[in-house]
Write a structure and sequence with these properties.
Elements lengths: L1 E3 L1 H7 L2 H16 L3 E3 L3 E6 L2 E10 L4 E9 L11 E8 L6 E6 L1 H19 L6 E5 L3 H13 L4 E5 L6 H10 L4 E3 L10 E4 L18 E4 L12 H6 E5 L2 H6 L3 H6 L8 E3 H5 L12 E5 L4 H18 L3 E2 L3
Parallel strand pairs: 1-7, 8-9, 8-11, 9-10, 11-12, 12-15, 13-14, 13-15
Antiparallel strand pairs: 1-16, 2-4, 3-4, 4-5, 5-6, 6-7
Helix pairs in contact: 2-3, 2-10, 3-4, 3-10, 4-5
Bound molecules: nicotinamide-adenine-dinucleotide.
């Protein structure tokens, strides 16, 4: 098997590679050629979470698992809070094929999912990007969003206001003006990305204007919540994986409150594969509930392995 260490990933997989790989995987899921296995996620105590996301992509010839989690004390140790590794197996024989550092890949595949939703669902004339959240993932989200629309301005809100200047630096790097705002100013945004680890809604329905596209990316576990459930009832809903959206995604709260039905949520892959229309009017609110699926991880890890093999990089071992 090939070991592709974390340190090689930045040179092997670009944001564009991640976008293409994740888009192909979402479409394969919609066509029934790829499916995710149930997620295992356990609380380890002290706010630490660990879990396994896995799946099989028949079209892409990939079977595998991402083992990883969230360790909020890591930043103080000079490490990122997310720690993960992706393992790929031959779907015919079960033999291990690769072990790939998954930290940067997680950020790339998560930002790719949100950018795909913006590309497919936001109004073409979107000018103002609203960012709710300013942690590790937020920078990747902002860069990926800026690739798919010609934004003229970024407005940002974060629970910990002192983190916003760093996000402002990312906007400046992209040549975009940045303004820290109160949540009610999010009505000015055409696209809103939420990427926090919040346990309760920050963004309320009154903070969102008609015609907005939202990519809600932070809620990936039971008990997390970023937006008011009634906002979901106002929106056309899309997700990566419906089963995850209603159990561990943002939709878990609107479902529990009886505000929406599972049948109202469309997999984004169906839009990509041309099976369902995306946005249908300039006034409707579209909301993508990005929960993060194992197949996204396998897709970007597969891209990393193919590049590493082509360039003779990585460490080959026999197991
Ligand atoms: P981080 O620790 O770097 O940042 C956390 C963010 O949440 C910061 O903006 C922080 O201010 C905010 N926050 C913390 N407590 C809050 C509260 N009580 N109310 C409101 N905001 C609060 O984490 P990160 O790596 O940027 O990840 C952010 C979230 O995204 C996490 O919940 C993580 O699990 C999730 N995530 C989702 C996916 C996916 O595929 N959907 C992938 C990776 C990460």
């Amino acid at each position: 098997m090939l070991i592709v260490p974390e340190a090689l990933i930045a040179d092997l997989v670009s944001a564009e590679d991640a976008f293409a790989a994740v888009e192909a995987t979402f479409a394969a899921m919609a066509r029934g050629e790829a499916y995710n296995f149930p997620v295992v996620r356990e609380a380890l105590g002290g706010d630490r979470q660990y879990g396994f996301k896995s799946g099989l992509d028949r079209a892409g010839g990939m079977l595998g698992v991402k083992a990883g989690g969230y360790f909020p004390g890591n930043l103080a140790r000079g490490m990122t809070n997310h720690q993960s590794t992706v393992y790929l197996f031959d779907p015919e024989t079960g033999r291990p094929v690769a072990m790939v550092g998954g930290n940067l890949l997680t950020a790339l595949r998560t930002a790719a999912a949100s950018a795909i939703s913006i590309d497919r669902l936001a109004r073409k004339d979107a000018k103002v990007l609203g960012m709710v959240g300013a942690g590790h993932q937020a920078a990747f989200q902002l860069r990926a969003a800026a690739r798919v629309r010609r934004f003229e301005k970024v407005i940002g809100w974060n629970y910990h206001a002192d983190m916003l200047p760093k996000l402002g630096e990312v906007a400046a790097d992209l040549g975009l003006p940045f303004e820290a705002v109160t949540l009610d100013r999010m009505v000015e945004a055409d696209v809103i990305v939420t990427i926090t680890s919040s346990p309760a809604a920050s963004l309320m329905s009154a903070h969102v204007s008609p015609g907005t596209h939202l990519a809600c990316m932070g809620t990936d576990t039971k008990g997390k919540q970023e937006v008011e459930p009634s906002l979901l009832a106002r929106a056309r809903l899309f997700t990566d994986e419906v089963a995850q959206s209603v159990t561990i995604g943002e939709a878990q709260h609107a479902i529990a409150a009886g505000l929406i039905r599972e049948a109202a949520i469309t997999p984004i892959g169906a839009v990509i594969a041309g099976m369902t229309p995306g946005r249908q009017s300039a006034e409707e609110i579209t909301l993508f509930d990005g929960t993060g699926v194992g197949l996204q991880d396998l897709a970007v890890a597969g891209a990393a392995v193919r590049r590493a093999e082509a360039r003779g990089l990585g460490v080959s071992v026999t197991i």
